[in-house]
Each structure stands twice: as structure tokens, then as C-alpha cells.
Amino acid sequence: MTRDDLFNTNASIVRDLSEAAAKSCPKAFIAIITNPVNSTVPIACEVFKKHNVFDPRRIFGVTTLDVVRSSAFVAEAKNLDVEQTNIPVIGGHAGITIIPILSQVKPSCKFSDDEVKKLTERIQNAGTEVVKAKAGAGSATLSMALAASKFVESLLKGLRNEKSVQCAYVASNACKGVDYFATPLEFGKNGIEKILGMGKLNAYEQGLVDAAIPELQKSISKGLKFVSG
């Protein structure tokens, strides 16, 4: 199933659920894991805007799956404890818009240029890797429940006024040229308390961001046009 197929199936579902939420529970936290996230998050936000109840701190695109995969792949490559390994993943949630910032990995470790390229490509294409491993028996859903759980746990910690940081795709001015972008976020009792931004990127990572922007623009525009008709 292509991203276009997903859009055709899921766009109306996200729109209709967002309509119901905007009318019945406009202060709810809306965590969207429904693909294509790069388009479905703008759809939800536009619906809330139409009802004059949009709060950018409360609508999130769950991209934690990319963080989970990045941590697993890096831990495997560097013989680290995966539970203690964290890599911020910025941009979006599809293909080249998935940008692992390996220069900011914790615990700090060094990568050769070849390692960076191979790890980045593996992370960006992890969904395809899963589909191939299933040999046609299913889609790229591996670890989605874990990712959703980790995201919700982070959000709940913020609601309890505990320090909590997680990457997510949200309405943001963190990246010039797009109105939605994933970066690390600090959560609090109102949802997003602070957009932490991309941090310092090296030249390779900046190139990945530059390449992702046109793809994000197309996906965002597609979502906006769907709502506006």
C-alpha cells in the first residue's frame, strides 16, 4: 500500500474524528499515529481551526516509531543498551523526511561517514525493511504499539509536571519553509510547553533537512487542500 493509498483511506477518517473532537472535547490532547502523518496532522489542525478551537500545543503527530527504530539500529551497531540510547529524529514521518540526528546521539559515540549514510538510509527505509521481512504477510506495523506507548507515557509525565521530552510532528516554526515539523518537544500540563528545535546540525544533516522540505511542503499542502475542498 502506497502513501497515496493510505491518504485516500485515512484522510476522511482523521477529518471526521477531528470534527467530533473539535465539537465535543476541544481541549483534548490529540495524538495522531494514522499515516500519512505528514498530511493527517495538518488535516486535524485545519478542522480545529475551522471550529475556532485550535490549540497548537494539543495536537501531535506521533513519530516515536522513528525514534524507537533509530535507537535500536544504533544500539545494535555500537553495542549499546537500547534502553539508554536516544537519537532525536526530526522532519516528518515518511521516507526522506525522516531525519535521524546522529551527531546528537546519547550516549555520545562516533560514526564514520559510511556508517552515518547507511544508518540514515536504514532508518528512513525501515518500514520497507519490515514489509520485506514479512514477505507479503502484513504491513509495516512492527513496534507501533511500543512507540505509541512511549509517546503517551511522555505526555502523561508532562501532565504530572515531570520533565519530559519527546519528538513529534506538530505545527511549528522550527524549520523555515514549512508550518509543520518534527523536533524534540518539552511536555507540560498544557501539552507542548516548549519546541526545542533542531539543535546544531552538521553539513550532512542540514542537507537532509533541505531535501526534506519540498516533500513536506507537498504533503502538508495535500492535507490542507483535502479540508478546504
Automatic annotation (TrEMBL):
<comment type="similarity">
    <text>Belongs to the LDH/MDH superfamily. MDH type 1 family.</text>
</comment>
<feature type="domain" description="Lactate/malate dehydrogenase C-terminal">
    <location>
        <begin position="63"/>
        <end position="227"/>
    </location>
</feature>
<dbReference type="GO" id="GO:0006108">
    <property type="term" value="P:malate metabolic process"/>
</dbReference>
<keyword id="KW-0560">Oxidoreductase</keyword>
<keyword id="KW-0520">NAD</keyword>
<protein>
    <recommendedName>
        <fullName>Malate dehydrogenase</fullName>
        <ecNumber>1.1.1.37</ecNumber>
    </recommendedName>
</protein>
<dbReference type="InterPro" id="IPR001236">
    <property type="entry name" value="Lactate/malate_DH_N"/>
</dbReference>
<dbReference type="InterPro" id="IPR015955">
    <property type="entry name" value="Lactate_DH/Glyco_Ohase_4_C"/>
</dbReference>
<dbReference type="InterPro" id="IPR036291">
    <property type="entry name" value="NAD(P)-bd_dom_sf"/>
</dbReference>
<dbReference type="InterPro" id="IPR022383">
    <property type="entry name" value="Lactate/malate_DH_C"/>
</dbReference>
<dbReference type="InterPro" id="IPR010097">
    <property type="entry name" value="Malate_DH_type1"/>
</dbReference>
<dbReference type="InterPro" id="IPR001252">
    <property type="entry name" value="Malate_DH_AS"/>
</dbReference>
<dbReference type="Pfam" id="PF00056">
    <property type="entry name" value="Ldh_1_N"/>
</dbReference>
<feature type="domain" description="Lactate/malate dehydrogenase N-terminal">
    <location>
        <begin position="1"/>
        <end position="61"/>
    </location>
</feature>
<dbReference type="GO" id="GO:0030060">
    <property type="term" value="F:L-malate dehydrogenase (NAD+) activity"/>
</dbReference>
<dbReference type="GO" id="GO:0005739">
    <property type="term" value="C:mitochondrion"/>
</dbReference>
<comment type="subunit">
    <text>Homodimer.</text>
</comment>
<dbReference type="Pfam" id="PF02866">
    <property type="entry name" value="Ldh_1_C"/>
</dbReference>
<keyword id="KW-0816">Tricarboxylic acid cycle</keyword>
<dbReference type="GO" id="GO:0006099">
    <property type="term" value="P:tricarboxylic acid cycle"/>
</dbReference>
